[in-house]
Structure formats: C-alpha cells, structure tokens
Amino acid sequence: MNAPYSHESSARRVLAIPIAWWVAASTAIGLALGYSAFSAVIFGQLTLPLSEEFSWSLAKATGAHSLATAIIVIAAPLVGAASDRFGAWRVIAFSIAALPLALAQIAIVNGSLVHFYVAVGLIAIVGAGTLPVTYTKILVTWFERRRGLALGICLAGVGAGMSVIPMAFQWLAQGLGWRAAVLAIAVAMACLMLPLGWLFLRQQPRSPREIDGGIENGRRASAADAPVAAERLRPLREYCLSRSFVILAAVFAVLGVANLGLVVNFMSILREEGLDPSTAARLFGVFGASFTVTRIVTGWFLDRFPPRIVALAITLCPAFGALVLFAGDGVANASFAMVLFAIGMGGEFDVMAFFVARYFPKALYGRLYAGIYSLYNCGAMLGPVSVAHYHDVNGSFSGALLMLSAAMAAAAFAFLALPSAVDGRREQAVLDEAPRVRA
After folding, report:
1. Which residues of 356-373 are buried (b: 16+ CB within 10 A; e: fewer)?
2. Quick one: pLDDT at residue 122?
3. Contact assessment for residue 257 and residue 380, using Cβ atoms and an 8 Å cutoff
4. Element (H, E) at 14
5. Nearest Cα to 242, choosing from 51, 438, 105, 14?
6. Is the four-CA dihedral 326, 332, 336, 341 of positive or negative sign?
7. Contact 26, 33 (CB under 8 A)
8. 45-49, 207-211, 243-247, 393-397: which range is least confident on average?
9. Which residues contact 41 (CB under 8 A, 6 or more apart)?
10. How much is the pLDDT for 221?
11. What is the average per-residue pLDDT within 68-94?
C-alpha cells in the first residue's frame, strides 16, 4: 500500500541530501552485506578449506551450493509475499538479526557433512530476507522518474559486496582463523544494518516532494510525479497470466540458463582456448569491475531512454559476447567477451525490477518480482550443468556458445513484445491484456 501523503510536509534531508537517496544508499549497503555476499564467502572461499580439513570430497562440499540455491528458489516467493503483507523492512530486520545466528552454525562445524548442509540450508532460509526483492520493493515506493538509477545504485551493492566481503574475510581469516572471520563479518553486518534500517529503510515518503529526492531541483511536484495513489487490484492469478508477466518470466528463465551457463564455465572455456589459469583469473576481475558499474549505468539509461530498447541492447551484449568467444581465441577477445557478459548480467536485474514496478501494482511487487526471480534461479541451476554436460559429450564448447547466443538474442527481442504503457497506466494495461492471454 502506498503511504498517505501530506502535501504540506517539507521534504526531509540529512546532511543536505534528500532522504530518498539515503534510502537508496542504505539498500545498496544492505545488499552488499546480505545473503549474496555471504554465499560468495561460503562457496567461494570456504568449500575447499573445509573439504581439506574434514577430508570431504570437493563434490560433496560443493553440493551444499545446490541445496542453498534450491532453498532460495522456494523461499524467494515466500519472502516476496511476506514483504507485500507485512512490509519489506520487517522481513529485512528479521533476516539481519537471524543471519549471524545461522552463520554461527558454520563456525562450529566439526566434521559432520550433515551439520554443514543443515547450516547452509539455515543460512539460505534466514538470508532470503536480504535478497533484492525486499530492498527493491522499498525503492519503488520512493522513486518514480529516477527509479532506474535508484535501482541501479541498490543492485550495484551486490557486486560491491561480492568484491569486498571475500577480501575482508580473507584478511580476518589470516589473523583470527576462518571460524572467527565468519562470525566477525556477520556481527558487523547486523551492527551496521540494523541502525541504518531503523533510520532509513523503515521510513515512508511523507510528501510527493520526497519522491525521487525532489525532481528538477525542487520543482513543485505535480500529480504526474507522485505515485499512483490507489491501485485497483485483481486476483494475483490474473497478473501472472498477463502477457507482461509471461514474457518477463520466460525471458529471465532463459537468461538464467544462458548467462550462468557461460559465466560459471568461463574459466574452462578460456583454458580450452589456450589461456593459462592466471590470465583467466585476471579476466574474471574485469568481469567484477564491469558488473558493478554496469548496474548503475543501466539504471540511468532506463530513466532516460525507452526501457524496452535499453533491455534489448543490454541483453544482446552477452549474446554477441558468446559469438566473440566462438569466433576466436586470445586475451583481447576473451576480455571483450567478459565485458559484454558483465553488461548483460549487471543490467538484467535492473531491468527485472524496473519492469515489474512499471507494469504491476506496488502492492503485489514482492510476489511478482520473486516469482520471476525464482524462475531465473531455476535457469541458473540448469545452465552451468547443461553447458558442462554438452562439453563432456561433444568435447568442445563451440556448439553450446552458438546455442546460448541464439537463446539470448531471442530473449532480447522478446522485450519488444512488452506493452509500452507508462507507469500511471501500468495496472490497466496489464488487466486489459489478461483476458486475451487466458483466451
């Protein structure tokens, strides 16, 4: 539900910065210190040491990642529904408070693989409240005309966290050991995010003047600038059967398969093309830097250019990148392809959040976004395994690169089939098309 506005209220500022931008920055920090960052630590840096310390096979230790991903696929829609019903801040606050307790289970693993799996499952369950669905739901209330940029800032936090948290963990682990390092980072996250959340994330706009942090240097807000005051809701099923939702769900399921299939196997693809492991690892650093910047840039473009064209362009980038890898080897080609993959993966979540907020009522944002997000993760589970299996059977990645490029190109052009309705008419556009889909 949208907050009731008092048109006489003055816009709040903190240190001369409009409160809306403090909210956006807080969501970015929240995602940087959320489940995505911790999963990078657990599965990126702890799996090998744990398998060596407790004599587990690497396959068994890595299997916990599949368990966590499956839980996230199931939990995301539940988190979205809880955010719609109880408010995103309450869901976030619970996760922030509970995540250190769940991570403590990792710190006390004593060699039992079952204990490790239970701990990872618990982290995924309580950490699901720090997924993008909760933080982006907060932002769609605060931003209209600058929503793309705000979402880009928010989602850039994931890339920043996945870059910084593993380094911080490594530094702490060298001095304190990996068990204490896990707990230290978890406690630091809670100590930082609970105050930030209390100050900013739980707030609601008091006036149209606070939307977008003030539009055009404080220009007097008009009815067109304010969010839709009241949205006439239909049953959730009708929105799920609408053309907009079906297109978005199908597109992001395909992108989950294609993008993760490429990125997870990227090191193997490069080695097949003759690059040494150290060079391949350096190229992955190019991906991380490009990934974070792309999210902000994509958001800026979504605010200023036709969103469907922006979505088409960024989705064609990894499709072209796959063709670059297919066409030739060498460091230059691989670097260019990695940048193109980063543009696609960096921008796709901006596009997902932007279009869900554009075409559907805010009261259902959490459930609809989470449904698409879960389908993306289903694709992400299938993609890496499918591409690796293709290589095992055929002895080369070449055919897989061509098929994934074609799939991403088809997904890119599917964005053009979305309605061109503006925000103020998004609900009616979806409701008008729903009967045609059911027919």
Report:
1. bbbbbbbebbbbbbbbbb
2. 92
3. yes
4. strand 13-14
5. 438
6. positive
7. no
8. 45-49
9. 165, 166, 169, 182, 185
10. 41
11. 92
Query: Structure pTM?
Result: 0.83
Residues of the chain with CATH 1.20.1250.20: 13-213, 236-438
Distance of alpha carbon 162 from the chain centroid:
12
Contact 239, 372 (CB under 8 A): no
Helices (H), 305-421: 307-327, 331-359, 365-394, 398-414
The full length of the chain comes to 439
Residue percentage of the chain with pLDDT more than 90: 36
What is the distance between the alpha carbons of residues 342 and 76, in angstroms, rounded to a whole number?
Answer: 24
Give how far Cα 412 sits from Cα of 6, 336, 416, Å: 42, 20, 8
Only one residue has tokens 């901006």, namely 350
Residue indicated by tokens 């932007």:
354
CA atoms within 13 A on the CB side of 358: 24
pLDDT at 433 over 70: no
Query: What's the average model confidence in pLDDT over 208-235?
Result: 58
Characterise 434 by phi-psi region: left (phi > 0), alpha (psi -120 to 50), beta (else). Answer: alpha
The least confident of 86-100, 204-218, 401-415 is 204-218
Tell me the three state secondary structure of residue 395.
Answer: coil
Q: What pLDDT is recorded for position 15?
A: 86
pLDDT at 382 over 90: no
How many other CB atoms are there within 10 angstroms of residue 4's CB atom?
9
Q: Which two tokens stand for residue 245?
A: 């939702």
Q: Hey, what are 333's tokens?
A: 């080609």
Residue 330: per-residue pLDDT: 72
CA distance 355 to 366: 13
Distance from C-alpha of 225 to C-alpha of 258, rounded to nearest angstrom? 38
- Taking the C-alpha atoms of residue 230 and residue 234, their distance in angstroms, rounded to an integer, is 13
C-alpha–C-alpha distance, residues 384 and 266, integer Å: 10
190 pLDDT exceeds 70? yes
- Does domain 236-438 match CATH 1.20.1250.20? yes
Residue 352's pLDDT band (cuts 50, 70, 90): very high
Architecture category of domain 13-213 in CATH: Up-down Bundle (1.20)
By three-state DSSP, how is residue 414 classified? helix
**Rg of the chain's alpha carbons, rounded to an integer?**
22
Does residue 49 surpass a pLDDT of 50?
yes
Q: Rounded to whole angstroms, how far apart are CA atoms 412 and 415?
A: 6
Element (H, E) at 240: helix 236-240
* Cβ neighbours for 70, distance < 8 A, ≥ 6 positions apart: 381
